[in-house]
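Structure tokens please, single chain.
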Amino acid sequence: MFPRLFAASVLLTLASASLPAAPPHWVTSWAASIQGPFPSGNASAQPHLTFVFPVPPNGAQDQSFRLIVRPDIWGPSARLRLSNVFGTKPVTFDGIFAGVQLSGSALLPGTNRAVLFQGKPAVTIAPGESTWSDAFAVASTGQMAGRKMAVSFHVVGESGPMTWHAKALTTSYISKPGAGPKGNEEGEASFPFPTTSWYFLDAVDMMAPATTRTIVAFGDSITDGTASTLNGDDRWPDVLSRRVHAAYGDRFSVVNAGIGGNQVAGPAAYSAGKPNSGGPSAIQRLDRDVLGLSSVGAVVWLEGINDFNRTNNAAVDVVEAGMRDVVGRLRAKIPDIRVIGATVTSASGSAAGTAEQDTKRKALNEFIRTGGLFDAVADFDKATVDPQTGGLRAEFVPEGTMGGAGDKLHPNRLGYAAMAASIDLESLMPKAAKK
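Here you go.
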């Protein structure tokens, strides 16, 4: 009996060894959820942009952008997604390049690569649409972890309302109006104007092994990183990323799909003509900002405090219903996805906080912890609350972006680190891998 089992085992091993490895696939390595037409939104530490965009509704005028982004993983090839979702007229882009940042708007020499769309050096994107580029080879400089990519492009003519992400908390660069295409340049002379927002670009994919998955941090300004350090990469998704890579290497990519001011269920309607500073609701933007990304394996969702503020004042059951809707759609599209519910942190003592809001927040947190909707819970509330006051712990309040006392709503660098440390990394593992 034993020889037969041994022989069968050998044959199975040989058969497995002869099977071809699964091919690599696209994995989203950086994302920034677009939220509306510039200047609708909540930017942080934004430089004065009057000389850059003199008439905001007219948008960019024959000028080039050099956007600085930090891919969470790198691969041998990449692709970009440009968006005109909140535009009102077609926008043509040319002079599209991607290189490795040296410092400021200067590039590491020899790393800038032309980016094509369907084999062409220019692309026109209709209003309401977005499009992925062709794959392009990534210039390797040896150790790429932590390196930042500089994505450059030129807007031909006048763009009209610009699709953007307000709160980048990362400095990017723009040419003066009428400067023309400058993306091929490695130096910084053509990009004199800084901005702390991202425009038109909303995702970067890398080619990665077939088992690599994307973890999406989905939420509002506390995921977007308000009060963290400008250019410090210390939002809670950034800290989570470093924990994940220390534990699992590059098996996972962590990307940020937060929007300052975002809600679960509101506003009921959103359009480029009638924007809301917090962008479309989580329900409305799910397809683009999570399901539209590549190789998603897990979502950590922190949201709800803006639904309960003085202006919106939603009912708890409305937010709970919105969460059920979103989680149901995630599981319908990605059956083995892990959906982690994060408890909502306190706004007590802040200008936006009210007793009614805090009561609703606690009720929502009870639903998140015990309602059975989520695969696991990240207890951000427990990680940041002062049991004596009911607000954020005092050391988590002073902010890092602008300095100052802080607003008692958004945690600082230390608070975001505590939030990321509270996540059980095993809870992020795909269901198939946990069996």
